[in-house]
Write a structure and sequence with these properties.
The structure holds two protein chains of two kinds. By secondary structure, chain A is mainly α. Chain A has a single domain, classed as Ferritin, core subunit, four-helix bundle (Ferritin), CATH 1.20.1260. Chain B has one domain. By secondary structure, chain B is an all-alpha fold.
């Protein structure tokens, strides 16, 4: 499947389906790093990652609301929805690997790559082949954002996640102008997740019924991740994800009024050793010799698969199911801890971790 | 000289920890996976060694190995042998009961006075919670299909749903 310039509502739905998948795909790496930290240690770093992970869950829910608003069907259960880690995301002209790994400097570098703000528009114009922020470059096969096929048949790639959301926003504007707002936002309003079902989760959930609320949701997603107009804060005055993670890398908090890359706040104590030595990008087959661990890892995948099914139900007319689905996340945390405390191999002291191989169960 | 032979076999920390895990599986009826899953194996082992010393700990592990050998893979026999070699033993019994309490509640309990007078009063033998997560990781909670008050809560509003009873 390729992305095309957005000309129809179906094109837009395909973009939004990709957005739902993309927002979800960041959550397993964030959860893996968080839960690899020994409970009670690295509290500051844990909280920073937790805030970001919860905002990704808000983004996922907003993308689902957008999908429903334009008459599509959010589906978190289809094969391939959860990527096989490591997967790849675009970062300018190259890709970077997004994998499941323990809390470490290397992992924080990956998170910085995921949330990296786009370059200012004028500095990438030379290479960009269109004003959509597309590039003609050789890319890795396991990309999270599908390639874009131009009218001339060229395979192009988005410069960053920011450019991808910009294309969705422009598509919405274009379609509402051409077809009229009522013909784009045809979804059943009862399927919207409203604040009564989504509580204290990284910001206010926006029910989407028209162009204005759709663009507000896209703005919230983009700016919580990448900041407002190249600044370190979003339009609500909150630190963007990139700079939240950078605090962990630099071991220092940002203060209001700080310039990018130069936080002036108090130091953030980090103990890189208070971490379970989990295997990176684990697979069920890695646990072949540890039967209880293998069974527990499969149980985790079954539980997660069911969790995604519950989310899909709640996004398809049963919003009240979201409350118990969110309750399931506490179980996901406990199951993760158990996996991460169980050795795979006594000699190398490596421990297990959730494999997120959802298509295998 | 049986004792001497076993001490030679279990020389590394890792080997002793592994026997301690096997013993804990029998004492608690929880699986090795579940015990590892509490993250407390090393903490409990170290706590005991700190209080009663490496030598007495080795005596417990040796007694367990003896019980296992005599039970020859018969579960019922093993329980019987553990009563004989550990729980009814004046020196090892109170420690064995403390191991059970530690796994379930997360605290070390001061040994009985009669034990302290007979085998020595370690300064560290006070009642205390073993680690910051020992209480919430106690096996008590999964045993009663609940969660520790104030921790591991199942999420807002989930009390409206029927309880999820896990297999033990």
């Amino acid at each position: 499947m390729h992305l095309h310039p957005i000309k129809t509502v179906e094109d837009l739905q395909f973009y939004v389906a990709t957005a739902i998948q993309l927002e979800h795909a960041t959550i397993p790496p964030y959860l893996t790093a968080m839960y690899s930290i020994h409970p009670g240690t690295n509290k500051d770093a844990y909280d920073v990652m937790r805030v970001v992970a919860i905002e990704e869950m808000l983004h996922l829910t907003l993308a689902a609301n957008l999908m429903n608003a334009i008459g599509g069907t959010p589906d978190l259960t289809q094969k391939g929805f959860v990527p096989s880690y490591p997967t790849y995301l675009p970062n300018g002209e190259t890709d970077f690997e997004v994998g499941l790994g323990k809390f470490s400097l290397e992992t924080i570098d990956t998170f910085l790559n995921i949330e990296r703000p786009p370059l200012p528009t004028n500095s990438k114009k030379n290479n960009a082949t269109s004003n959509l922020g597309l590039l003609k470059t050789q890319r890795t096969k396991k990309m999270l954002i599908p390639t874009f096929k131009s009218a001339e048949g060229d395979e192009l790639h988005f410069y960053s996640i920011g450019e991808f959301y910009k294309a969705i926003g422009e598509g919405i504007t274009k379609l509402t102008e051409e077809l009229g707002e009522k013909n784009v936002f045809v979804g059943d309003p009862d399927k919207q997740i409203t604040p009564e079902y989504y509580y204290s989760g990284g910001g206010e959930i926006i029910p989407i019924h028209n162009k204005k609320s759709a663009l507000a949701a896209i703005r919230l997603i983009s700016e919580q991740g990448e900041g407002h107009e190249g600044g370190i804060f979003d339009y609500e005055g909150e630190l963007s994800h990139y700079y939240r993670f950078q605090q962990i890398k630099l071991g220092k908090y940002y203060h209001k009024g700080d310039e990018p890359n130069d936080p002036s706040g108090e130091s953030m104590p980090i103990d890189w050793d208070a971490v379970y030595p989990i295997q990176s990008n684990p697979r069920i087959e890695d646990f072949e010799n540890v039967l209880e661990l293998k069974k527990a890892a499969i149980d985790f995948n079954l539980f997660y698969k069911n969790f995604l099914k519950q989310l899909t139900n709640s996004f398809n007319g049963k919003p009240d199911q979201l409350i118990s689905a969110v309750g399931g996340m506490f179980r996901i945390k406990e199951m993760s801890y158990q996996l991460m405390r169980n050795p795979i191999n006594e000699k190398e002291k490596t421990t297990g971790a959730p494999t997120f191989e959802i298509d295998l169960v | 000289m049986v004792l001497h032979k076993y001490l030679l076999i279990m020389k590394t920390h890792h080997e002793k920890l592994s026997v301690f895990l096997d013993l804990s599986v029998v004492l608690t009826a929880f699986s090795a996976y579940q015990l590892h899953g509490t993250g407390q194996l090393e903490a409990y082992y170290t706590t005991i060694v700190d209080i009663i010393g490496d030598q007495t700990m080795s005596e417990i592990l040796v007694a367990f190995n003896t019980a296992k050998t005599e039970a020859s893979s018969d579960q019922k026999q093993l329980e019987q042998q553990i009563r004989i070699h550990l729980l009814s033993n004046d020196k090892l019994g109170p420690i064995t009961r403390n191991i059970i309490k530690m796994w379930f509640i997360g605290s070390w309990y001061q040994l009985p006075n009669i034990w302290r007078e007979a085998y020595g009063k370690s300064e560290k033998d006070q009642t205390f919670v073993v680690s910051s997560i020992a209480y919430t990781e106690g096996l008590l909670w999964p045993t009663i299909d609940s969660h520790p008050p104030g921790a591991k809560a199942p999420g807002y509003g989930t009390w409206a749903n029927p309880p999820k009873i896990s297999e033990v």
